[in-house]
Amino acid sequence: MSQHNSFSNTRNLVLCAVCAAITCILAPLSIPLAGGVPISLATFAVMLSGVLLGGSMGAVSQLIYVLLGSVGLPVFAGWTGGLGNVLGMTGGFIIGYIPCAWLTGLIYHRFGSNAKKSLKIFYMIIGMIAGTIALYALGTVWFVAITGMDIRAALAACVIPFIPGDFIKMAAVVMIGLPVGTAIRRAVYAGEPAV
Fold first, then answer.
1. Residue 117: which domain range?
2. HSE-up of residue 54 (Cα within 13 Å, Cβ side)
3. Which tens digit of pLDDT belongs to each residue from 97-130?
């Protein structure tokens, strides 16, 4: 039994590290916008982490990412890093990656991971939408608190320009998440030691 638990823990740590690394690689790739919040590939990596790892482990992978950036590694948008980014006007979005991955993974794994393909996709999308709403809410409230901007202007700067791109990222997560998730499950079950 302890050998099985050790294998599961090692597997989960490796998958967490891989998803954190994917976020570290993709998040710096960004396009700056006039409002101060850049478009980046971070949310794609965050949602994919939730889909592949589930709620808790997806959130842990993003916590690792936030901690790596906070200590100065250049993993945030535009190859920046440091605690100033987390405490600055976009910090709510950076921290919001954690609940985004958690909600995405929680909803998908609770309701869709063992369902038929059409329901898998449905719950994956519902999970990503719920996670993105949490990300937008936390990030926008933080942005308003730091900048003093009114909520309408903040939504125009922080949310509305990102919605079309986030739906494209969700479609990409569905296309990648289903086969990769299946491959991971097959590899895990094929490699599990006998108990």
1. 2-191
2. 12
3. 999 999 999 999 999 888 898 999 999 999 999 9
